[in-house]
Each structure stands twice: as structure tokens, then as C-alpha cells.
User: Fold these one by one.
Assistant:
Number 1:
Amino acid sequence: GAVVSQHPSWVICKSGTSVKIECRSLDFQATTMFWYRQFPKQSLMLMATSNEGSKATYEQGVEKDKFLINHASLTLSTLTVTSAHPEDSSFYICSVHGGPHRTDTQYFGPGTRLTVL
Amino acid sequence: GESVGLHLPTLSVQEGDNSIINCAYSNSASDYFIWYKQESGKGPQFIIDIRSNMDKRQGQRVTVLLNKTVKHLSLQIAATQPGDSAVYFCAEGFSGGYNKLIFGAGTRLAVHP
């Protein structure tokens, strides 16, 4: 499947600051990427669909002004958590739709652990 | 105290036994289904998938069964090994739904030597 990386793997920040998380598709040009959030012992919750060259599509209840998504190239999508607060602490995971050998599934990155103090 | 719903159901098996993990999906229009394995602190790893026009698909040591009548999916792992210990999620997708996936709650598989 597609090889997906995320950076950073973990980040600790102070309340009120902004944090940017990068998601890279290393072996596949992805027109669509997805961003998920996962709280401890819970399932993955889709936040938004990131479309290359256009605006992201956000799921109901996800604030687009707080979670800024940019998909400027076929290999990079970024999620910026603006004015982060402790309740934003979570595991953020991106995925790529498709891959070099498959076109109909999602492959996930390793995740980014965000802790807001 | 802890809230209901924050405890993942756990399946405990002995090493070498077969494991069966079940999942109920919600959308009768879903036309593909995927099983993912997630180890602690890592992203989900693709295991196997199945299309709605099939009822069984086999991989290496894994088999997925689909029962569309009752909207049920299962993952069978043969000769379970300690390295299989993880949380397993089923996900359903709809080809006409912008490729979005809906994830199930997850099941923790604990393999004991």
C-alpha cells in the first residue's frame, strides 16, 4: 500500500499556540487525504477530507477555522491546530486514499500525539 | 469514574488458537469493508478488505466474512501469535460517498503465551 509519513510524531505546546502537523504520501500522488482524531481507547473520528488544490471538506461539528487544512501538492497535506487548548490534546492521524497498487482503500500515517498544556 | 463506552471490548486468546473478531456495520449502502490493526501509539495498518459482492475473502492467516443480510462482518485469524495483539477496527465505505470510511468501535485482541 501507500507509504505515509507524519511529522512531528509528537508535540507538546502551550495553550493558545498553534501547531502544524504534516502528512506526506511518499510513494503515491494523492489527490485525497483524510485527517482523523483519536482519543484514548476510542475509535477514529474523521475530521475532514483534504482535496489537492481545493478547500477541505469538514465533518459536522469540526471547526474549520480552528483546524486549518492545506493540501498544496499531491504529496503533502498539513493540519494546523490554531489557538490550541488542552481539550485539543489527542492523537491525530492522516490517511491517503489509494496507493501505487490499490486505488480503493486508505492507508494511514503513524499518527501525531498532540499534548496541550 | 470512567464513562461507559471508553472500554474497548477485549478478546483474550491463547497463542496458537484461532481468533474471531466481530463487527456490526450500520449502512446498508456500504459496498466495501476494511479491517485495520492498530498497535499502541501507531496508525492503523491495513489487513484485508472485502467488497459487498463477496461473502468471503482469504489472506495470509486471515479470513474476512461478510453477511449483508444482518450487516455483520468478521475477521478470523488463524494460529494467533503474540504479535497479533492489538486493537482491530472494521471500517465501512461507500464508493459513491467520497471514499470516506466509517470506523467501528474496535476490539482489543490479547494473545497469551
Number 2:
Amino acid sequence: GAGVSQTPSNKVTEKGKYVELRCDPISGHTALYWYRQSLGQGPEFLIYFQGTGAADDSGLPNDRFFAVRPEGSVSTLKIQRTERGDSAVYLCASSSGTGPSGANVLTFGAGSRLTVL
Amino acid sequence: GESVGLHLPTLSVQEGDNSIINCAYSNSASDYFIWYKQESGKGPQFIIDIRSNMDKRQGQRVTVLLNKTVKHLSLQIAATQPGDSAVYFCAENSGGSYIPTFGRGTSLIVHP
């Protein structure tokens, strides 16, 4: 697609429920990232995929968070037993691997705003 | 809607003025830096980048300066326009990592 697409744009759920957030990256981008952004803060890294595999998941806060990218394109971030502290904007980004200075530039989606009541 | 700029450092300027947004980093191994612009309700958008072997890089109306001695990065925007109003983040990569680490951000408000 022309850009990174994220759905839903807004999700309101109750504490303890399960949610899935979807990311459709730019076609051909092998690298995919999930970040979380709380109000007044910069994006915080969660997980990075290179192709189908999670190359780095060190940012996932605990085992309630999981992400998949089974065919190396669309990715789903899954959150189990949601807590009020999970409320944030979840950003997805993809990259082709090189930018003007020869290094990594990310293209972000608009984000999925999650509110846990 | 909700403001991404809430609680952030804020810079207010008049339209037409030059703006300077600063960023300090702590990792001496950082070797690649990017400035992103984030408008309300949108994801961060690439503005300009610089490698650690450079001190200065210019784009269209924007200049990034890097001072590795004091671990400081700045973004200069010439002739600031109302459309430049947004939150600006610096991000850094280190040691060949593909994972940028973002700073806290600065909210730029441009008054017509």
C-alpha cells in the first residue's frame, strides 16, 4: 500500500479483556516495528520483525503482550488480560532498511489508540 | 482531540521566525540520528537524518547540527510556518542497531 495502515484507529475495552491490533506495512518492507506511546512521551520500542521472525522482542513489557507476522507482511499485536496501564497509542512502522544517509528510516502508521476502562 | 504536546517542553515562535529545537542524548555509541515530526493524531514522520561522522546536514528549510563532544543534537527550522506546528522527536541508533530510541519530544507552536 501507499503507507502503513493500522486498524482499529480506536479501541475501547474493559480491564481483563483480550485485544488485537493490526498493522499492514508498506509493500516490500521487510522490517516491521511496534512502538507504544503514552501521553506526553516519545514512542517506546516493543518489538522488531525482520521478515517473519521477531528479531528483537526485548521491549515487550511482560508475557501478556505478543506479536506475530506469519507471512512477513501483516502483523498483529496481541494483548491478553488488558490492564488500565496498557492504555496508550500503539504505533506500527516499517522500513526498507536504508535512508538518505544510508541507514534506517522508519515510516509510521497513524497508530491505534487503546483505552482500557 | 487529545494533545500529544501535553506535558512536553514547548517552544512558541512567531510565523517567519527561525526555530531551534534541542535534543540531548546519553549513549556515546550512538552513530545515527533522525528527527521526526508528529502532528496531532498522526504517526511520526521523517524530517532529516545525520550520521555521527558529520557535524551538519541541511535539507529544505531544515538543518541538523550534531555535537558529539557534548552529546547534543539540534534541529533548525528556517522561516517557521504554521504548518510546522507539531511535536518534534530526535531518535538515535547505536552500533548498527536497527531499533531507534526516541527522546521525549518538544512541542513547537507557531503563531500566525
